[in-house]
Amino acid sequence: MPKLAKIIVYPIKSLDGVAVNQATILPGGALQHDRELAIADEKGKIVNAKRTAKIHLVRSKFDLQNRTVSLQVMGTKKQLFQLDEERKAIEHWFSDFFGFKVKLQENLFTGFPDDLESSGPTIVSTATLTEVASWFPGLSLEQIRDRFRTNLEIDDAPPFWEDQLFAEKGEILPFQVGDVLFEGTNPCQRCPVPTRDAFTGEAYPNFQKIFVEKRKETLPEWANLSQFNHFFRLTANTRIPASEAGKILKVGDVVHRPGCQACGRLY
């Protein structure tokens, strides 16, 4: 049966992720610590990798228990900051890096998702990422994982298994991971970020063109075509109802239909 193999959260939007063994569901349907902070300019506009490829050059390492982050640009010394007590110092570090003044915004309810209507965790199977890596000579599974930045990774499932997690456009499809109820909504529309190396920002030649051709060619029979106005889509977007707040997702949780772990499982 498909089960949860990885949980990855991104404490500061567009920076490096942290693999965790479990994650608490917030009242707004996000995972605790996922994109709870975002970098914004003086007008409040988010500074992310869609806006500037320069952000790929920043390496960040988080200690969630002690609430610290170390920041580094290649060739410079690491600097350690306390996330709650040294916000001004972090803002100053990023302002120097970008060359314009920025602030850290915080949202502990929903975080800062890209899709405001489907603000839950994104989901993909490990087999999907492995298949996509095979389309691009020189790219590894880990590099593809870093490019697509998915929250929940499912094992014991075939490539594009997650395309079962959405129905007709405008409808929701309920499913559970452990005892947490999810609503699958649509395949995630990708931006320029996956076309670039996650550590250098360098673009892979013809990445989007290759991806679209292969995605269309390998689209499984269980994928709902009404959701594909184009094929630069990968991973499933979700929502988590407010009723699930406080529940905990754990690595190893089984994915199944509500009410029946045996007969309602997803293949």
From TrEMBL:
<dbReference type="GO" id="GO:0030170">
    <property type="term" value="F:pyridoxal phosphate binding"/>
</dbReference>
<dbReference type="InterPro" id="IPR005302">
    <property type="entry name" value="MoCF_Sase_C"/>
</dbReference>
<protein>
    <submittedName>
        <fullName>MOSC domain-containing protein</fullName>
    </submittedName>
</protein>
<feature type="domain" description="MOSC">
    <location>
        <begin position="87"/>
        <end position="258"/>
    </location>
</feature>
<dbReference type="Pfam" id="PF03476">
    <property type="entry name" value="MOSC_N"/>
</dbReference>
<dbReference type="Pfam" id="PF03473">
    <property type="entry name" value="MOSC"/>
</dbReference>
<dbReference type="InterPro" id="IPR005303">
    <property type="entry name" value="MOCOS_middle"/>
</dbReference>
<dbReference type="GO" id="GO:0030151">
    <property type="term" value="F:molybdenum ion binding"/>
</dbReference>
<dbReference type="GO" id="GO:0003824">
    <property type="term" value="F:catalytic activity"/>
</dbReference>
